Amino acid sequence: MKFIAGFIVALVALAIAGFAVVYSGVVNVAARGPDSAPVAWLLTTAMQRSVARRAAAEPQPAPSTDLKLGFRFYNETCVYCHGGPGKDPVDFGKGLIPEPPYLADTVAGWTGAELYWIVKNGVRMTGMPSFADSHKDEELRAVVAFIQKLPGMTPEQYAEYEKAQ
């Protein structure tokens, strides 16, 4: 019985401490400057695990082969924050915290289903919007196919897509 009472007291103390931290204003919510290491770890881990869990629970969409459509979507919406081969993000993309990843370097760490889930649903508190209500499913699948081609794509190849538009 003492163990259960001690456990309950510890939970209440933890809840009070958490409330005190939040209510005190000690956590910096400014969109300027990096998060502390523990906060960055917490947010990154929560995002990665959440995406993996939810993407696995949904039926995986059929892959797209329409790279032209995927490029158009990427070039009109994504390149401003994520950049691309030979393209730096614009000022507002560089000012987001956490910094949007350069997808050519990070896309390999995600499955197609996870990338689709991120594009469709967005990620809270990162600047990554949901495109589910503003774009058709075929566009979402096409942009996933395109970003999966970014690793190894040269600036010249990216420019060829631009010229073809």
Can you give keywords for this protein?
heme, 165 residues, Cytochrome Bc1 Complex, Chain D, domain 2, Cyt_c-like_dom, elongated, Cyt_c-like_dom_sf, 8 helices, metal ion binding, 2 domains, mainly alpha
Any overview of this molecule?
- By secondary structure, the chain is an all-alpha fold.
- The chain has two domains: 1-30; 32-163, Cytochrome c-like domain (Cytochrome Bc1 Complex, Chain D, domain 2).
- Helix content is 61%, strand content 0%.
- It has eight helices and no strands.
- Helix 2 (37-57) crosses helix 6 (112-121), helix 3 (67-82) packs across helix 7 and helix 6 (112-121) crosses helix 7.
- The longest helix has 23 residues, at 2-24.
- The N and C termini lie far apart (72 Å).
- 18% of the residues are buried.
- One of its GO terms (molecular function) is metal ion binding.
